[in-house]
Specification:
Neprosin_propep, Neprosin PEP catalytic domain-containing protein, about 425 residues, six-stranded antiparallel β-sheet, Glutamic_endopeptidase, Neprosin, alpha+beta, Jelly Rolls
């Protein structure tokens, strides 16, 4: 009996020891795996940054003595915290695309649509620049000839994304599809729109004058934008999209500043050009990148978009446009004016059969006038005190020189 008790007790002690060793080994394995995962992520982030941030010819930054003794220094490229790299035009990240290998850059479009300038149809360059575009980083310098300014992507920018591969990409396909206000679809995508649109013809460009605001964003993973959509194909996996406008996106940029942005989907020689105002040609999308936008678009949309992540199970208070509804009128609501499209004869003209669409007009709404003056915006459930505060702030900005921006997207006609 004593021997049996000894054997059983000895066995139990051995089992406890084995179990303890297994637990310790498991903790060590998890710890090593955690360190390996963190190390792998750090390596992936750095590789991604090396792909995005091309070697600059010049960097716009300002050396600041943080403590007055030259022992603690940091760099600041712009008062808003951006660092601007001046990259040679032939080394820009766009040329990482396999379809753009050996692509010869075209500096300016061969033609502008009839009516865009008062001069001849053939573009020979602007006579003079009237409204010079200035940006905050210009306070610390400008980029030299044959270079383009690119905001440097930082490690923290990439880490804000759900993964390295997802950085800079939209989380869901969010093209507003008129007449499809299915509540289940709205809740699933989280994107809400207030737009005007035209369809049923071939469109070779679109134009609008958009006033700029600074909408309040409730959650960092939400955004608010005003833009032009140029669409080709069907509302499925084969839809082609080119988009340009302004947006506020804390998740992408790490701040609440309003920024110019572009976005496009990837799948007779012609290009889709983007022009800002009268004199500034910002660049183009080669038509051979697309399957349904090679020659023309089948639909044009103008308007706003927000993400509603439903924080705490409630509709977000993220604002669209100025945060004021169309019925509040000019000076308060956000607007698109001088809405035009380019026809097959390369003429700018007012769109025919302009329709409007919004998923939830009680939250975000749109109104189109006969003179093709479009007003969008709102969030109705914002508390009154909050709304009044933003009304005062936005009125102050409107009287402090906030001017409308003109965005223009067009396609070169095949020669």
């Amino acid at each position: 009996m004593g021997a049996a008790q000894y054997s059983n007790g000895h066995l139990r002690r051995k089992l406890k020891l084995v179990f303890f060793l297994v637990c310790v080994w498991g903790l060590i394995s998890l710890s090593c795996a955690g360190r390996l995962s963190a190390s792998r992520q750090k390596l992936e982030v750095q590789k991604h940054l090396n792909r995005l941030n091309k070697p600059p010819i010049k960097t716009i930054e300002q050396l600041i003595n943080a403590e007055g003794d030259f022992t603690s220094l940091f760099y600041l490229g712009s008062p808003d915290g951006d660092i601007i790299d001046c990259v040679h035009i032939s080394h820009q990240p766009a040329f990482d695309h396999p379809f753009l290998k050996d692509h010869k850059i075209q500096a300016r479009p061969s033609y502008h649509p009839e009516g865009f300038f008062d001069e001849n149809k053939m573009s020979t360059g602007p006579k003079e620049r009237t409204n010079t575009i200035t940006q905050l980083w210009h306070m610390n310098g400008k980029c030299p000839e044959d270079t383009i300014p690119i905001r440097r992507t930082k490690k923290e920018d990439v880490l804000r994304a759900s993964s390295v591969k997802r950085y800079g990409k939209k989380k869901h396909r969010s093209i507003p599809k008129p007449r499809s206000a299915d509540p289940d679809f709205i809740n699933e995508s989280g994107h809400q729109h207030a737009i005007a649109y035209v369809e049923g013809d071939k469109y070779y460009g679109a134009k609008a004058t958009i006033n700029v605001w600074e909408p309040k964003i409730q959650q960092p993973n939400e955004f608010s934008l005003s833009q032009i959509w140029v669409l080709g194909g069907s509302f499925g996996e084969d839809l082609n999209s080119i988009e340009a406008g302004w947006q506020v996106s804390p998740d992408l940029y790490g701040d609440n500043n309003t920024r110019l942005f572009t976005y496009w989907t990837d799948p007779k020689e012609g290009h889709w050009w983007m022009q800002f105002g009268r004199d500034y040609v910002l660049g183009y999308w080669p038509s051979f990148l697309f399957s349904y936008l090679t020659e023309s678009a089948s639909m044009i949309e103008w308007g706003g978009e927000v993400v509603n992540s439903e924080p705490d199970g409630q509709h977000t208070s993220t604002q669209m446009g100025s945060g004021h509804f169309p019925e509040e009128g000019f000076g308060k609501s956000s607007y698109f004016r001088n809405i035009q499209v380019v026809d097959s004869s390369n003429n700018l003209k007012a769109p025919k059969g302009l329709g409007t669409f919004t998923e939830q007009s009680n939250c975000y709404d749109v109104s189109a006038r006969p003179t093709y003056f479009l007003e969008t915006g709102g969030f109705r459930d914002t508390p009154l005190q909050h709304t009044d505060r933003w009304k005062r702030e936005n009125q102050l900005k409107a009287f402090s020189g906030w001017s409308p921006s003109r965005a223009f997207l067009r396609a070169d006609l095949p020669s």
